[in-house]
Amino acid sequence: MSNIDAYRRRFLLGAGIASVATVAPGLVLRQVNAKPADEAVTDQKRWGMLIDVDKLPNGGQGVVDACKAEHGWGHEEHSNAEQKTQWVRTVKVTEKLTKHEFKLPVMCQHCETAPCADVCPTGASFKRVDGIVLVNKHICIGCRYCMMACPYKARSLVHEAIFDQKPDTPRGKGTVEACTLCVHKIDAGEQPACVASSNGAIVFGDLKDESSEISKQLKARGGKQIRADLGLNTGVRYQGI
What we know:
The chain is an alpha+beta fold. The chain has a single domain (44-239), classed as Alpha-Beta Plaits, CATH 3.30.70. The protein has helices spanning 3-12, 61-71, 115-119, 145-149, 183-186, 193-196, 213-221, and strands at residues 16-24, 27-34, 47-52, 88-94, 101-107, 125-127, 133-135, 156-157, 176-177, 202-206, 236-239. The strands form five sheets. The protein has a three-stranded mixed sheet with strand order 10-3-11. Strands 1-2 form a two-stranded antiparallel ribbon. It is globular.
C-alpha cells in the first residue's frame, strides 16, 4: 500500500451510529454518536441535507456566516476580492415568467456521482462511502480540474497563505476547498454548523434511513435537486424552489 493510499484510508475512518436516549417520560431523543476512531465509515448511511428556502431568513446569509465562523474562511486578507474563497454562497433566482424572486444557499451538493472526483488526477477529490465529498489537502496539486467540472461552482482555490487556521479544518495555499458537510462534526455525532444556525430551515440526516426526519420530510413534501437533469443524485435537496 502506498503512502497516499494509507493516508486516504486513515482519512476515511470514523462515522456516526445512531442511538436512542430517553430524556423525559414519553419523550425519546434520537441522537447520532461517533464510531470509535479505528472503525471505517459505512455505506449503510448516506448523509444529506434538506433546505427549506421559504424558512431561511435573509436568503440563507446565516448559513454563510455560520460556515465562515466554523471553518475560518472568508475572513483572511486577500489581494484580489474576486479570488476569495467561498464554501457556500447565496444565489438570487428570478423566475422568467412570474418575476418571482428568491435566494438560496449553494454549496457542494455532495453528489453520488461526483464530477470533481472523476476528473481529479491524484485522487485528492474523493467521495466517502457515506456520501460526503472531500478534498485530501496532502495530495491536492491545485490543478483546478475539479473546479471546472463542478456544475455548481462550489469549489475555490486558496490563492494566498492562510494563518490562524481552525484545528478541524486544514487549509493551504495552492489547494482546492469546498463544503465538507462539517465532517468533523458528523464523525463526532454532531450536526453541521449551518444546520444548527438555520432555525429549523435545514434538516440533516441519513437519506438511507426511512425513519430519519430528512427521509420523512422528503416523502411528505418532496425535495428538488439543482440541475437534476445532470443525474448526479445530490445529497443536498431543496424545498421552495
